Amino acid sequence: MNRQKLVEQICTKRTFLCVGLDTDIKKIPQHLLNEESPIFAFNKAIIDATAPYCVAYKPNLAFYESLGVNGIAAFEHTVRYLRKYYPHHFVIADAKRGDIGNTSSLYARTFFEEYDIDALTVAPYMGEDSVSPFLEYDDKWVILLALTSNRGSADFQLMEDAHGEHLFERVLKKSQQWAGPDKMMYVVGATQGAKFQEIRLLAPNHFLLVPGVGAQGGSLQEVCRYGMIADCGLLVNSSRGIIYASNGTDFAEAAAKSAQALQAEMAIELDKAHIQ
């Protein structure tokens, strides 16, 4: 999916919500454990319930790989289901890949050819040759880790060099030599608050994938105040706050209500920014 189509979906649906499919076999409702594929059964119900309120889904590969072959099969079935029944939704594989060039080429082939994913999260710290293989595909996206929402992000990402430049700032500057805002996004955690101002000075036109709203305490309004641009430029992810809104038989309905509530807040922010 190219940028124009993504923006069209945001404007049409009045939402920039990404639903994170961090599907944990130990957290899904017990009655689903009788299904042939409990993970896929859960995902299917969540997708059907939340699709009107979001523009993207983000399966986190760790939750699927932890279950071996059955988990990978559930991931594949989930992606195929999205492609067949919800082809206008943007699909992100949250896999945080990044390795030497020939290995990255195989990761790119896996996610962009075999699975037909729209975007892949990638770690930048092995440099350009570890990222460039992912950039060779038309209408596919690299989502580069920039400033994450976890507590340990300060350990390295906020380190300063002799000139006072943070490591995450160096990542933003250098990586823009590799690709433009039509192929590269950045992960910036919602818990980073006003640092969105700094990020927008360095990357004024790139989309930002923003985790940390909801269960992790990030403020949607703060993210929009500092991070929104003329065509929105944001995909705000919520995982636990939506998919685990209930652990009963009403889990899908509860997820829909949580997603709808976020969509309503996002519509207000889009209106405030005069994004049509």
List keywords for this structure.
single chain, 276 residues, alpha/beta, 15% strand, globular
Order of helices and strands: HEHEHHEHEHEHHEHEHEHH
Q: Characterize the main sheet.
A: 8 strands, parallel, barrel
Shape: globular
The tally of helices reads: 12
What's the β-strand tally?
A: 8
Low-pLDDT segments, ≥5 res: none
Strand content: 5-15%
Distance between the termini: 20 Å
Percent range of helical residues: 40-55%
Spatial arrangement of strands, main beta sheet: 1-2-3-4-5-6-7-8
Q: What's the alpha carbon Rg, rounded to whole Å?
A: 18 Å
Helix-and-strand structural type:
alpha/beta
Rounded mean pLDDT is 92
Describe it for me?
The structure is a single chain. The chain has an eight-stranded parallel beta barrel, surrounded by six helices. It is 43% helix and 15% strand. Helix 2 packs parallel to helix 4 and helix 2 crosses helix 12. The longest helix is centred in the C-terminal third of the chain and has 22 residues, at 251-272. With 276 residues, the chain is an alpha/beta fold.
